[in-house]
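DM from R.C. (forwarded with permission)

"hey, sorry to bug you on a friday — could you get me a structure for this? deadline for the figure draft is monday and I only need the backbone to look sensible"
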Amino acid sequence: MSLLSNLTESLSHLASSETLRRAWSLLRHAPGGGVLMGQLLGNFAPYTGTIRPEVLSLEEGYTRVRMRDRRAVRNHLRSVHAIALMNLGEVATGVAMMSSLPEGLRGIITHLEMDYLKKARGPITAECRAPAAVPNERREYDVQADLTDESGQLVARARARWLIGPATH
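My reply, with the result:
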């Protein structure tokens, strides 16, 4: 079984912070490791894979994720489509939030909104910091991801609410 298959199987059982960080520690220095980590996320959450995310950085409660500008994510105005940007914002908030969770907690998004500030062209990078979750407590957390273009200009801002609570099987 390939490394990617092993990691995908591990994530499919429970996308725990430990599993995310372990996968990133294995992939971060490998050639194309950020792309592989994005594929892993896309295997876990198939719709996320439609934007082909590339993980640039992942720490406890923090992530930077990039999406290339390609025809499949563009709109009729030759800029990145609003929903592709929202997908990038959602994956950034989700990875940041999930990477901050103590063992035994899991999360689900309950609200997502976007502000579109300018046309998005070229590679877009989403950056998000999430708070540490309280162990054994069911609670909602609001997190924000800023999406910037190659020049560092803010093109969109995602605000997500994640419901975090004890994992029950």
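R.C.: lifesaver. Residues 20 and 108 are 16 Å apart (CA to CA).
me: no worries. The longest strand covers residues 154-166.
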